Amino acid sequence: MQFPDRREAGRALAGKLTDLQERGLLDDPVVLALPRGGVPVADEVARVLGAPLDVVVARKIGAPFQPELGVGAVAGDAPPLYDPVLLGQLGLTEDELRPVAEREQAELRRRENVYRHGRPPLELEGRSAVLVDDGVATGSTARAALRAVRRAHPARTYIAAPVCSPQAVELLADAADEVVCVEVPPAFGSVGFWYEWFPQLSDREVLDILHVKG
Length: 214
What we know:
Layout: H1 6-22, E1 29-33, H2 38-49, E2 53-55, E3 58-63, E4 66-75, E5 81-82, H3 84-90, H4 94-116, E6 128-132, H5 140-150, E7 156-163, H6 166-172, E8 178-183, H7 203-210
Parallel strand pairs: 1-2, 1-6, 6-7, 7-8
Antiparallel strand pairs: 3-4, 4-5
């Protein structure tokens, strides 16, 4: 199935998470959006769960010769997280990727400063942290974000998205207490394929959702 847009997808995802909440598995939740596309989805989830909304910025580390091919990711203050199998297949080393990683870390810090506008991140210790994106294709960026979230010592961690690839669900199974997806199509393709309306979001749109004055 295709979702009409990110807002509708967020409401569908919220229904799955409400089931966990009603079973007592989602105590004192905090919803954490992966910007930019995950923010409107997470906003709907936070409204339904009655939870505060924050962001966790993660950035893909692309191969030098093919930037769209993610070989790792950075999130929070944690060091880069690489896919060792893919690095081996491509003949790349972490040292060779250091300039790319440093650029992505600089952009990560810029976005965190913009989106939080000087506000510290929400307290996660002892709470249920729900990391939300608009879709999870490979899972590498989400995995880096989950590692950053765990450093804040939440009681439980969830990764939640309207649509996930089977490979991502498998990859993330040991990185979160639970992976929550509305749809897990066997033939995934791209995240945008599963939306009728899938525009790129601007920083201004993200700030409006987060009620931050830019």
